[in-house]
Amino acid sequence: MTDEKPAATAHDHGHSHGFRAPDGGGPHPGPRPQGRPGHDHADIDWAAMAPLLESEAELFSPLYAQALTWLARDAGDPGLVVDAGSGPGVVSCLLADAFPGARVVAVDGAEPLLERARARAARLGLADRFGTLAGELPGVLDGLDRPAGLLWASRSLHHLGDQRAALAAFGEHLAPGGTLAILEGGLPMRFLPRDIGIGRPGIQARLDAAQEEWFAEMRAALPDTVAETEDWPGLLNAAGLKHTGSRSFLLDLPAPVPDRVRGYVAASLGRLCEDRGDRLDATDRATLDRLLDPGDEAGVHRRPDLFLLAAHTVHTAVRPA
């Protein structure tokens, strides 16, 4: 396996965790841009963004570890594991831990993120069985030197216009009997009670609605977009694969949370406010201002009832032998 790194249009295939569980059910704003195939984010400074993305993925590592343990029970020794949309490689390295006999290839469109992934693998002693491949999904997968025994795609699929065709392309890069695992779907993330004592109760539900509207517009604007019912098991079967299971995994960080969780929530909420705040009324925007004020006792930096609860869903399918 060679670590070929062709020129690529910068985009974000990293692992994002926002107020909507990523995804397949929809949106996932996080503390970073939503750059994916079909979006022009060449102006994004990925080297500057990389530490934040890495810290974010590390926070969710317990959830990923659960999912990969589940996968490992049936996947055996896949030989080659591909992380399609790896970002800075946190989950790529977890895949290497879960499958100690396999070679792992992290695939992303942003070379600075892949540099971070290679450095992480080296620190963890994984460099001898870790490679990277830069380019746009799904075509970049043609650069693999052999079919994958396991292809993991976390929230990258829904940023491709024709998701059914992308699933079929993913399947073509699996070895016979190989597994495709996609993380798409889940539940909206929660971090505050319904009534937070300021503004109108239920602000997170209204944020969810604003995000759903944005997500529909994003999907409609993708090149060659095809509307699909988000029946992921059905789409996997329609792509010529055999759906083998779906399971959701929980990240449950109850109050009181440590500062790193507060920082994540504040960054995520700030991004959401910046990008979607104009879809909310003046009362909710004022509430968001207070939630983001580090000096406000009612804000996420200080309030004692802040928690983090997220559920992400993984769907698996195999390529017929």
What can you tell me about this protein's structure?
There is one protein chain. The protein is an alpha/beta fold and 321 residues long. The protein has a single domain, classed as Rossmann fold, CATH 3.40.50.150. 36% of the residues lie in helices and 20% in strands. A seven-stranded mixed beta sheet has the order 3-2-1-4-5-7-6, with helices on both faces. The radius of gyration is 19 Å and the shape is globular. The model is unreliable at 1-41 (pLDDT under 50).
Layout of helices and strands:
Elements: H1 46-59, H2 61-75, E1 80-84, H3 90-98, E2 103-108, H4 111-123, E3 130-134, E4 148-154, H5 163-172, E5 174-190, H6 203-221, H7 232-238, E6 242-253, H8 259-276, H9 282-291, E7 308-318
Parallel strand pairs: 1-2, 1-4, 2-3, 4-5
Antiparallel strand pairs: 5-7, 6-7
Helix pairs in contact: 2-3
